[in-house]
Design a protein that fits this description.
Elements (H helix, E strand, L loop, with lengths): L9 E5 L4 H17 L2 E8 L12 H24 L5 E7 L2 H9 L4 E5 L13 H9 L4 E4 L8 E4 L6 H15 L3 E7 L6 H6 L4 H20 L7 E7 L2 H8 L5 E5 L13 H9 L4 E4 L1 H13 L1
Parallel strand pairs: 1-2, 1-4, 2-3, 4-5, 6-7, 6-9, 7-8, 9-10
Antiparallel strand pairs: 5-10
Amino acid sequence: MTVPIGHSNVVVVGVDGSDAAQRAARWAAAEAARRGAALRVVHAELPLPADALDMTGMARRALHDEAMHWVRDAVTGALEVAPGLEVTHRVEVNTPAWLLEQESADAVLVVVGSRGLGGFTGLLLGSVAVSLSCRALCPVVVVRGDEVEGPVVVGVNGAPHNWMVVDRAFAEAEARGTLLVAVHAWHPPMGNEKLAASVGIVWSELQTVRDAVVAQRLAACADRHPGVRVERHVVHGSAAHRLVEFAAGASLLVVGSHGTGGLRGKLLGSTSQAVIRHAPCPVLLVRPALDEQIENARRAG
């Protein structure tokens, strides 16, 4: 997989001492080794409360010692997974979201656990994961479930930029040498086939049209990744629910994130939020608009 312009070949993982963060560090180490990349372990020390009295600096030193202990544990776990991997670390007093956003400017991937403590408290349900999904300058992986050698699953929809999400999923399946499972979920109109037929709507025709659109999108990406086996599913229901179902036994679930700009952390789609809470496998969040900027820069250069 090529390294985007402006990024070093480094995978960044945020850690905080939680079991989920340790699993994320091990997953990130395996991913870095697979890419031939380095690994950087990052921790954001919480600032002391404004009213805290720390005249001797003991409280700050205690927090720093704890942070370094967590980082060393993460590095040890990473090297157990990938002996010989180049591993560096960064620890500083900062907010977790801001620190990881900074790191994303020089990374090919930022990896976080599904829940945390300390500097990454509330990772999934709070602002950190949402902020990263909207603001990170590289793709983000939220590590969930156990690592398995299953297929890559991708959500396919009709959005103009979704082809970049699909193309990234092709690249992930190609790199892993595994099957790509493409899922498009839709809600039939009026919710009842007989009722829809009464006003001249034929479900089977709508299904055929959607299947053709999905097939066309996959074909366009398949040309860039010959040899990737693809399994296509056009199904009824909630996109989030069906993606979570198809992700059972998967090695990775790939979805798009469209949040941008001033409404920081508010525009991550409901499907993305749902899958990072409930998916049974790691979730790769791709920002299609960012990928388009990178692709345009590559073509111009």
